[in-house]
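Lab notebook page, bench 4
Experiment: in silico fold of construct C2
Operator: M.H.
Input chain length: 220 residues
Purpose: comparison with the prior construct
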Amino acid sequence: MTNTKIRLLLVDDHKIIREGLRSLLEAKPDLEVVGEAENGQEAIAQVATLQPDIVLMDVRMPIMDGVAATREICQQFKAIKVLVLTTFDDDDYVSQAMRLGAKGYLLKDTHSDDLATAIRAIYKGYTQMGPGLLEKAIALPTTPPQPTQLPPELAGLTPREREVLCLIAKGANNREIAQTLYISERTVKNHITSILSQLNLRDRTQAAMYVSAFLPLLHS
């Protein structure tokens, strides 16, 4: 049995917050804080040196903010995952961070047990969003360019898979999708597995974000 711990880098411009997070997270036997940074520029340097598994990233910081740092880390260090942990739930922050490569967005009032659970899920490759933040993450800009046709991977879905995907985008769970389409939950799971495979996505959160711009075309 492996005793490998998930290695974390804490990025926040307030030392007291970093200290509090370190204390809470290192109380979990499978988590280890390997470093700290007080701005995005420091975070990039620390990532290069320490190679953590996950970076817990604040948004508003001096010198370089968390959104810019997220972009650089996700571009330069493909294997390292970023979890935004902040007090700010502005639509622009949430949407930008997720589109630039963050694997999760949580608020600082998240319970320590829930934060630890989210870290473990992100480590395994899942996406984690705080309550009410998925809608902000997939929110379109005020004047978005409207796609005129479906990309090939979406066009290749069956009519039933499109229906399932549209319901996922609306936030429906497997049971609700099954009831709406009069099919079994097992069939729903099979459809979702097929959809994620064809679209090369990890989970239903990514699917909802991906398909949001194409919903009018899927319904047409």
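Observations: The radius of gyration is 19 Å. The first helix runs from residue 15 to 25.
Next step: discuss at group meeting.
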